[in-house]
Amino acid sequence: MAKHDIEADFPLLVGKQYDLSAENFNFNCLAFALGDESNWWEPPKGAGQYWPPGFPDDLTIPTVEAIIRCHGFTVEIGVDEIPEADAIAIYSVGDEWSHFAKFANDGWRCKLGIGHDVIGFDLHDLETAMYGKVVKILRRPLPPSALEKTP
Amino acid sequence: MPHAQNKFIKEKDNLWCKPECARPDHVSDDTEWNMRHLSLGKVFFDNWSFQAPIEHGWHAVEEGEVSPLCGYLFHNEELALDVKRLKVSEIRLRANYLAVEFDALSNKWKRDTRHLSLISKQISHSAYLRIIGMGEAAIPLILKELRDRPAHWFAALRATANTDPAGKDDSPSQAREAWLRWGISEGYID
User: Fold this and answer.
1) Which segments of chain B are extended strands (E)?
2) At what angle do helices B172-186 and B154-161 cross, to 10 degrees?
3) Are residues A89 and A136 in contact, defined by beta-carbon separation less than 8 angstroms?
4) Digit-coded pLDDT (tens) for A69-88
5) Are B118 and A130 within 8 A, CB to CB?
6) A30 touches chain B (CB under 8 A)
7) Chain B CB contacts of A25 below 8 Å
8) pLDDT tens readout for residues B167-187
9) Domain ranges for chain B
10) In this structure, are strands B47-51 and B42-44 parallel, antiparallel, or unpaired?
11) DSSP strand pairing (A19-20 vs B60-61)
12) CA distances (Å), B75 to each of A28, B4, B78, B79, in order?
């Protein structure tokens, strides 16, 4: 898939500098954000889909937030803040999650459906009817050394 | 598939029966010819009837009869006809006629849903549902697509094939491999 195919769905990316990686149907944006590139995270668990045990089979924000917090992203920050550590942004349409992006190495990156990973965009570039809006960002706690430097 | 014209062919434990007419000049591929002549049979209880190929017009033949232009299938207790294999061959033949429509629907589905994060939303697309509506004839086409351009075809395969060879813990790649193994073993793809 070329950039113009992606920009057809996300016109705010037109003219932006971003990179694409290879397509892979094995994992989706939630899996990518959590560092699992072997499974497609979506309820219910079944052939070709993974959902962690002990969580409701639903697409609600509280459920997925609990899953993300279990992976160490426990500090909520504002949706327009630049995270000071690795973070996950949750996009939502209505009451259900629709997409996730991961902040790492000073930039946002995500997996678009079965398609490419996109690296180096602004969170709001992907706010479309398909993905809705960023509703929450959860980051990892800062290490003690970083806290000491905070004025 | 073995050549079937002019003689009985024994493949594994199955004996394939003899068509009477020669292969038309414009049909160069033996496999296609055999599919046309052997796969269109329909089973009625323990008996066979045979529908002549399209170029001869559809012509039902009773058990033991010979069509004017084509061969015959017949019931004979001494012959062990592989009903399942014939059925799959018929499905593959029907799939050939749906291939163009399938490609168009598949392309539209992928184009419209490629960025969706949820399989549940991808598979509710009208093109995907239309493919499921093709029924068994879509199975060979879906399997080929899954083999050549991996995507989440598992729901469509479960719906059309009424089975699921993939394990509940399989990743998409593992589920794909399980379905392709199944498709090959069942004769839907080579």
Assistant:
1) 9-11, 14-16, 42-44, 47-51, 60-61
2) 30
3) yes
4) 999 999 999 999 999 999 99
5) no
6) yes
7) 150-152, 172
8) 989 999 999 999 999 999 999
9) 9-81, 89-186
10) antiparallel
11) unpaired
12) 53, 17, 9, 7
